[in-house]
């Protein structure tokens, strides 16, 4: 099977961007482990000057065979040459949307809902009393952070809109942020799913990422659905996303580079704010637990995932409803 080459070249001549890049990325290079920061900066600047003597840029006037993309000064200008096919188009689109401006992404689930208290999945229930308390506490927390140019995104479901209602910032509703569609299992308790659809319950435990609820969605479907959200997050500065457990697991997995097998089991507890700060090599993650009681909705993968397991083994990891 043949393959095509698509070259990507980053060219930076802006002194301020170069300096910031060196301070944030290069001085942490293993080459400079035992060197003072100032000495590391000087050494890397010497490297740049040395490379400049021999480096030859891609030339769109001369190159007739290969496809490539040139990014100038961290996105100030972009040149795409001989782009062909869907994959190259997606790569170019992605790289034209990311930026290096310092920013943070805040993630939080809606406050505890009535369905959370009852142990029912999905649905579009209102917040519980404790959930409304969390909404007030969240608004206070965000106000105290003094976040510049903050935008708030919620799903189109009542519990996220209610949770964000007290936050003083521009808000947008995203249908793409709606919780995973549980199909025929919407509104049921885990115990009821095991009783009514034991084979489906076991099949989901066997491969939670790819399993699709009958007339519903899989985690894999949600990942595809969230592509536009992820792309827009890459373009934005400071954003607070008020979402749902499955959806925020997908967002977390993207920024933390988690594989599909781990994604459905990432812990995204209620009444907790997760702060993501993209850095040169990965993402800094901070958790802020708001001291308001709530149920635990995290269900770990049981040891026995077989179709013929007994109900006790199937339900052993179901969290308490109260």
UniProtKB/TrEMBL annotation:
Substrate binds at residues 109-116, 159. The active site is at residues 110, 179. Residues 2-102 form the 6-phosphofructo-2-kinase domain. GO terms for molecular function: 6-phosphofructo-2-kinase activity; ATP binding; fructose-2,6-bisphosphate 2-phosphatase activity. It holds the Pfam family 6PF2K. Coiled coil: none annotated. Keywords: ATP-binding, Nucleotide-binding. GO terms for cellular component: cytosol. One of its GO terms (biological process) is fructose metabolic process. It comes from the Eukaryota. In the C-terminal section; belongs to the phosphoglycerate mutase family. This is 6-phosphofructo-2-kinase domain-containing protein.
